[in-house]
Amino acid sequence: MAGPAARVPFIGLTGGLGAGKSTALAALADLGAATLSTDEVVHDLLNGAELRDEVVATGITVRAPGDTTAVGRRSRAVTADAEAAARLATDDLVGWLRHRRTDGWSRTRLGTAVGHSAQWVRWRLEG
Prior knowledge:
Radius of gyration: 19 Å
Mean pLDDT: 82
Low-confidence stretches: none
Strand content: under 5%
Distance between the termini: 62 Å
Structural class: mainly alpha
Number of domains: 2
Order of helices and strands: HHHHHHH
Helix content: 55-70%
Number of helices: 7
Number of strands: 0
């Protein structure tokens, strides 16, 4: 007689732009986990003519996959920086990051502190 059915954990990933959600999802998939990316679902839906036509009929512009604008990228970067600065209660985000880096903090630790990925921290420190 078999034992009780094992409970399968359900994990949800959240985080800001560049936080590493897609990387974590890919790592889970590599380990054999069943995964669902809501980004992919939305992209698939908007790539279908029926939903795209309905969205466009409301007056919303739907860009083609991979089509981004410089204004949009800058806007997202400014928003991410403002959120990180608020989280740390600082007016000088890059200065805060550089000071901690000088104190020996790794980019991973800094990323955790600001709610972003180590890559995001690298971009800010190099920018």
